[in-house]
UniProtKB/TrEMBL annotation:
Domain Cation efflux protein cytoplasmic residues, every copy: 249-325
Native source species: Streptosporangium saharense
Any one GO cellular component localisation term in the record: plasma membrane
Name recorded for this polypeptide: Cation diffusion facilitator family transporter
Record PANTHER family: MITOCHONDRIAL METAL TRANSPORTER 1-RELATED
Positions of the Cation efflux protein transmembrane domain: 54-245
NCBIfam families (UniProt xref): CDF
Keyword 4Fe-4S: no
Classification via InterPro entries: Cation_efflux (IPR002524), Cation_efflux_CTD (IPR027470), Cation_efflux_CTD_sf (IPR036837), Cation_efflux_TM (IPR058533), Cation_efflux_TMD_sf (IPR027469), CDF_Transporter (IPR050291)
Location in or out of the cell: Membrane
Gene Ontology MF annotations: cadmium ion transmembrane transporter activity; ferrous iron transmembrane transporter activity; zinc efflux antiporter activity
Topological category with respect to the lipid bilayer: Multi-pass membrane protein
Keywords: Membrane, Transmembrane, Transmembrane helix, Transport
Length: 363
């Protein structure tokens, strides 16, 4: 018996008020969990906005300090690093827009809400990192062909250290909170800040080399830093690509399987799918229950399955639970769908899968 209910409410005592049942699928939503999920979503977005505001301020202060030294030294390399830090601070703009959009309620057109705006912001950030790498490489080659002397090397070195420290602090802050709230875009932006820190170190190292009389120190170090930026670009692009392709950590699937497998009434765990919508997870779960269970009892098992998943799987906001009956022997409850299941991302009906497992045990 496979059924899904329209959203309903229940308290922690697990008394279930059942609304009108539709088709043969079970869908359960808890009123108290919905409130918790909304609060969590708003808190995550608030954390993201807080990170963006603080990091923007830190980077602008860093750039301002470097600008003063640019005026004193006339260092073109430091000027480039200063402008780079300003650009990095401005990447907070698309992310702030994304976090603001993510707070908007779902509509009949955008039924999952606006959380994926973060992924679009992530694409913008990856493009900015790529442009940074291209600019750094161009400047390094230009200086290699036409070396330039740098004045006030001591102050330039200090500015390089200030730039590195400011960017590294921002990078750690963004990456830590981004991973905490599950925002790939914020993590990518943190990696971008780290590339700017490398650029600042290039200024420091080039100043040291110039102080030793090596005029090519600036462009050679710049080329090495460009290569380092390309590695960071690869990591950021891979992070966003995985998010756009709905990739999740396989460990999360294994954790979800363990959680579902411990729910009373679940005989077997079928397919489990997870996807990110912004910095929140959504799940689709197939479970096998006894075919002798009543519709109400099968529904209760599905409700408890979602309840456990929401409370025990990090950053999960909602789960759609589908129940399949275990038996009677020889009955295929999904026969009418047999010609369509192959199109659904490789999903195999549980009744078919269970028959395969039983035939494998007999052989």
């Amino acid at each position: 018996m496979s059924d899904r209910n329209t959203p309903h409410e229940h308290g922690h005592g697990h008394g279930h008020g059942h609304g009108r049942l539709r088709t043969l699928l079970v869908r359960a939503t808890h009123s108290h969990d919905s409130a918790d999920r909304t609060d969590t979503a708003l808190e995550s977005s608030s954390q993201g906005m807080r990170v963006l505001g603080v990091s923007f301020a830190v980077l602008m202060v860093t750039a301002a300090a470097q600008a003063v030294i640019v005026a004193l030294s006339g260092s073109v390399a430091l000027l480039g690093d200063t402008l780079h830090n300003v650009a990095d601070a401005l990447t907070a703009v698309p992310l702030a827009i994304a976090f603001s959009l993510g707070r908007r309620a779902a509509t009949r057109r955008f039924t999952y809400g606006y959380g994926r705006a973060e992924d679009l912001a992530g694409i913008v950030i990856v493009v900015v990192i790529a442009l940074s790498a291209a600019l750094a490489g161009y400047e390094a080659v230009r200086r290699l062909l036409a070396p330039e002397n740098v004045q006030a090397l001591g102050w330039v070195a200090v500015a390089g250290v200030v730039g590195f420290l400011g960017n590294e602090w921002v990078a750690r802050y963004r990456i830590r909170v981004g991973r905490q709230i599950g925002s790939a875009a914020l993590v990518a932006d943190g990696l971008h800040a780290r590339t700017d820190g490398f650029t600042s170190l290039a200024v420091l190292l080039s100043a040291g080399g110039a102080a030793l009389g090596w005029r090519l120190a600036d462009p050679v170090v710049g080329l090495l830093i460009t290569a380092a930026i390309c590695f960071v670009l690869r990591d950021a692009a891979r992070e966003i690509y995985h998010r756009l392709m709905d990739a999740v950590d396989p460990a999360l699937i294994e954790q979800a399987e363990r959680i579902v497998g411990t729910v009373e009434g679940v005989r077997r765990v079928g397919s489990i799918r997870l996807r990110w919508v912004g910095h929140a997870l959504r799940a689709e779960v197939d479970i096998v229950v006894g075919h002798e269970l009543s519709l109400v009892r099968a529904h209760a098992v599905a409700v408890e399955t979602e309840h456990r998943l929401i409370h025990e799987l990090p950053r999960l906001r909602a789960a759609t639970v589908h129940t399949d009956p275990d038996g009677p022997r020889g009955v295929d409850h999904h026969a009418v769908l047999s010609g369509h299941r192959g199109l659904a991302g490789g999903r195999v009906s549980l009744s078919t899968a269970s028959r395969r497992r039983r035939s494998g045990r007999r052989s």
